[in-house]
Amino acid sequence: MNDNAIPIKNGFFLWEGAEPKLLISKCKLCNTPAFPQTSYCPNCASDQVEVVQLGSRGKLRNFTKVRNMPPECRIAVPYGVGIAEFPEYNIRIMGLLTIHDLSKLRPGMEIKLVVGRVYEEQGQEVFTYKFQPVEEGI
Ligand SMILES: [Zn+2]
Question: In degrees rounded to 5, what are phi and psi of residue 64?
């Protein structure tokens, strides 16, 4: 990453090192995970939550292509979005897909987390986490 690279939001992911990791919060009382991380549990409202890292691999559960630019979104259309399930805490997280041709995707495929550029803002390149299919040739 160069000096002009910034994350789309602080606290979403770690991108130092070889494998980026998503950051979630987990309730110490009932183990409910949440993404983006919260300061209270969405299940039991406890403030006894801790931030934990997810592994970098998950399973794609569903996906679609966005063809019309949502309001205030700066990501060029079309782009793919997916919901991936991460096994450590059985949490499902929505994210951008690295590919545009979704015809070879199917639910249950393994994905890995990568960090990629999404747009430029005031001379800075904005990066976010994305889901990349692990299978060759996709
Ligand atoms: Zn809880």
Answer: -160, 170
Distance CA(89)–CA(53), nearest Å, equals 10
How far, in Å, from the CA of 91 to the mean position of ligand 1? Answer: 14
- Cα 137 to middle of ligand 1, angstroms: 41
111, 85, 27, 54: CA torsion to nearest 10: -10
Q: What pTM was computed for the model? A: 0.91
Q: What span, in angstroms and rounded, lies between the C-alpha atoms of 50 and 36?
A: 12
Radius of gyration of the chain (CA): 16
């990568």: which residue's tokens? 114
Cα(27) to centroid(ligand 1), Å: 5
Give distance in angstroms: CA of 76 to centre of ligand 1.
37
Domain ranges of the chain: 5-133
- pLDDT, one tens digit per residue, over 20-72 is 999 999 999 999 999 999 999 999 999 999 999 999 999 999 999 999 988 88
Ligand 1 centroid–CA 43 distance in Å is 5
List all residues 6 or more positions away from 76 whose beta carbon is below 8 Å from its beta carbon: 69, 119
